[in-house]
Amino acid sequence: MRSRNFAPGQAFLSLVFLIGAIVLMIGVFLAFISSAFIDTGYGFQSSSNAEAAATSGAEDAMLQLVRNANFSSTGYSVSAASSTATVVVTQGSPSSGFITVLSTATVSNRIKKVQVILSLNASTSQASVVSWQEVQ
Predict the structure, then answer these.
(1) Which strands form 83-91's sheet, in the order they lie side by side?
(2) Per the omega criterion (within 30 degrees of 0), is the bond before 8 cis?
(3) Contact predicate 50/83, CB 8 Å
(4) What are phi and psi of 124, to 5 degrees?
(5) Mapping DSSP to helix (H, G, I), strand (E, B) and coil, where does residue 92 land?
(6) Which phi and psi (to 5°) does residue 55 adopt?
(7) Residue 113 · residue 134 · CB < 8 Å
(8) What pLDDT is stored for residue 1 in this prediction?
(9) What are the C-alpha distances in Å from 11 to residues 1, 5, 72?
(10) Among 111, 115, 66, 108, which residue's Cα sits nearest to residue 87?
């Protein structure tokens, strides 16, 4: 007889544990989802900042080339807001009469590279953009 009095209590305790486990799993799931959304938003912002810094580096290199058509560099830094881009300017690449500018910026492990290929007119020292692209 005594076991019959405890049977409803045991069933209720099992139900409480089951509901508690379900609530705990939902809470953990929501924590992971919110963490993923926050990381995605922060990653997008970091990626955009890195792209802006790389673009600024490429534009700075073109400004240097306007001032001096023979400008070349194995790597110099350009600060853009809170980011820094490393810029490499190579004369005669991919072939004679062309200049390749490669600007690389890293923000929070997000790396962006912008490559600009310019055509250089030897008689006028005028550079024209042939290609502007983001590279991997």
Answers:
(1) 73-80, 83-91, 98-107, 110-121, 126-135
(2) no
(3) yes
(4) -105, -10
(5) coil
(6) -65, -40
(7) yes
(8) 46
(9) 17, 11, 80
(10) 115
Would you kindly state where each structural domain of the chain is located, as residue ranges? 2-135
* pLDDT tens, position by position, 38-90: 777 788 888 899 999 999 999 999 999 888 888 999 999 999 878 899 999 99
Q: Give the mean pLDDT of the chain.
A: 87
Q: Rounded to whole angstroms, what are the CA distances from 80 to 26, 29, 54, 104, 116?
A: 43, 39, 9, 12, 18
Write the CB contacts of 99 (distance below 8 Å, at least 6 apart in sequence): 65, 89, 90, 91, 92, 93, 117, 118, 119, 120, 127
Q: What are the strands, taking DSSP E only, across the chain?
A: 73-80, 83-91, 98-107, 110-121, 126-135
Q: Both tokens of residue 90? A: 């190579």
Q: What token pair was written down for 121?
A: 């007119």
pTM for the full predicted model: 0.71
